[in-house]
Amino acid sequence: MNNRATGLSAVLGLFAYASIAAAATSWPSISEQLAADQVRPGSALENLIRANQDFDLLRPDELTTTRPELPPWLKVIWRKEHPKGNYTAEDPTGGYPHVLREAHEWMLSHQDLKSGTPENDQFPAGNPDPDAPILSGEVRISGAQTSPRSESDIRVNYWNPQKIISASNNISGAGVQAQFYSSDGGATWGQTTLSLVSGDAFQSDPTVEWTSDGKAWSSTLGINSAGSVLKLRTYSSTDSGVTWTNEATPSAAQTSVDKQMHWVDHSATSTCKDYQYIIYHNGNPAFITTRNATTNTWGAPIQVSGAESTGTAIGSDVKSNSAGDAFGFWPTTSNRRVIVTKSTNCGTSWATPVQVANTFDGYDIGVPSFNSRRILIYISGGTYRSATKNMVYAAWTDLSGEAGCTAAANEPGSNVASTCKTRIWFSRSADGGATWSAKTMLNNQASLNDQFNQWLVVDETSGAIGVVYYDTVADAGRKKTHLYYQSSFDDGVTWLPAVQVTTAQTDETTGGQDNGNQYGDYNAMSGIAGNFFPSWTDRRAGQKEEIWTAKITDQACTAPAAPNAGTATAIAPNQIQVTWSNGTPASTTFDILRATGTCAAPGTFAALATGLAGSPYTDSTVSGGSTYAYKVAGVDGTGSCVSAQSACVEATATGQCTLGATFNGIATATNSAASTCTNNLGWSSAVAQCAGPVSYNIYRDTTSGFTPSPANLIASGVSGTSYVDMDALNNGTQYYYVVRAVDQSNGVIDGNTVQQSATPTGPIATGNLVEAFENGGGFDNAGWSHAVVSGSVDWVWSAAQSQTPTHSWFSAEQPSTSDRVLTSPVLSALANTTLSFFHTYAFEGTVAQCYDAGTLEISTNGGSTWSVVPDAAFTAGGFTGTANAGFGNPIGGKRAWCAGTIGAMTQVSVNLGAYAGQSFQLRWHAGDDSSATATGWYVDSVTVSNAGTASACSTGINDYIFVDGFDPPVR
Question: Which overall architecture, per CATH, does domain 564-652 show?
Answer without folding.
Answer: Sandwich (2.60)
